[in-house]
Design a protein that fits this description.
The structure is a single chain. It is built from 11 helices and 9 strands. It binds ligand C2E and magnesium ion (3 copies). The site of one magnesium ion has 4 residues, from loops. It comes from Massilia soli. This is EAL domain-containing protein.
């Protein structure tokens, strides 16, 4: 419609939309209905202690199972959800489902210590989300201490209100992690002010850890920074034993990645870890 505005503010014909424009509109419409149509679901990826192999938590990762498109990865629909103002609704659904799943696992005999849920920077643009988070915790009965919210550095640097909103979240007792750490522009001055407990080393640094000396240096620096600021540090995208050993050798004992497990459905996580924890 915005495109239809002519020189005088109106046009006599409907402008021919490009194929891409039509495709995007269709995608938008489908995405808006996805929650009601039960097409959104979560996968869960284990976070482990490297030296013991113990499960310390899981990260919830959203998926969209579209009848037309198949399973769509978040990189393809989160930006769209952000653009069309759907991210708050989606984010709330994800949080609910993640918290409920923690309670379900417990009913099945698996206590997952902690769940990490990703937040979009756009969820911080409409005001504080602390009351929404508190409502979800109250309704599901999950202990706030077992929820960790992941935000990227863009949220941190979007200061002003963002800092106040992050403080609100801290006040209700949930944990905060900085996701993809090292790829953004967060200054150490801001980092110091933030009530965060965890840094997640971005997987781009872990990828070439044994061949790229710069990635090695950055990874070591982040681990040291975490130590100095008394934060826990977890590495994402760990795919090999060599990477895990490198991390352990340099003082990072927490990891997440395909080497341990891909993101899986709740039933698979139960099967994988119930046995391990017992045995
Ligand atoms: P992220 O939060 O950094 O999540 C980690 C991503 O790395 C996940 O991709 C995960 O499947 C992938 N990954 C984990 N281990 C490995 C590994 O060893 N090797 C490789 N190559 N990849 C690995 P996924 O699930 O496609 O999610 C992509 C991004 O989408 C997430 O990055 C996060 O930024 C966003 N996202 C996912 N779920 C949500 C959500 O519920 N809300 C919001 N706002 N964003 C989400
Ligand atoms: Mg994440
Ligand atoms: Mg990440
Ligand atoms: Mg990442």
């Amino acid at each position: 419609q915005a495109k239809a505005r002519g020189r005088n503010g109106y046009q006599f014909y409907a402008p021919s939309m490009t194929g891409e424009g039509v495709e995007r509109l269709r995608l938008e419409a489908m995405l808006r209905r996805s929650i009601d149509k039960n097409e959104i679901f979560l996968n869960y990826q284990p976070q482990v202690e490297i030296d013991t192999g113990r499960l310390i938590g899981v990260e919830a990762l959203v998926r969209w199972n579209s009848p037309e498109l198949g399973v769509v990865p978040p990189a393809r629909f989160i930006p769209l959800a952000e653009d069309i103002g759907f991210i708050s609704q989606l984010g709330k659904w994800v949080l609910y489902e993640a918290c409920r799943q923690m309670i379900r696992w417990e009913g099945q005999g698996l206590v997952v210590p902690k769940i990490a849920v990703n937040l979009s920077v756009k969820q911080f643009e409409r005001g504080s989300i602390a009351s929404m988070v508190a409502d979800v915790l109250a309704e599901t009965g999950l202990d706030p201490q077992r929820l960790q919210l992941e935000v990227t550095e863009s949220v941190i640097m979007n200061t002003g209100d963002a800092l106040a909103f992050i403080n609100d979240l801290h006040a209700i007792g949930v944990g905060l992690a900085i996701d993809d750490f090292g790829t953004g522009y967060s200054s150490l001055a801001y980092l110091k002010q933030m009530p965060v407990q965890t840094l997640k080393i971005d997987r781009s640094f872990i990828k070439d850890i044994s061949t790229d000396i710069n990635d090695e240096a950055i990874t070591i620096a982040i681990i040291q920074l975490g130590k100095s600021l008394n934060l826990s540090v977890i590495a994402e995208g760990v795919e090999t034993a060599e990477q895990a050993e490198f991390l352990l050798r340099h003082g990072c004992n927490l990891a997440q990645g395909y080497y341990y497990s891909r993101p899986v459905m709740p039933g698979a996580l139960l099967e994988d870890w119930q046995v391990k924890e017992l045995g």
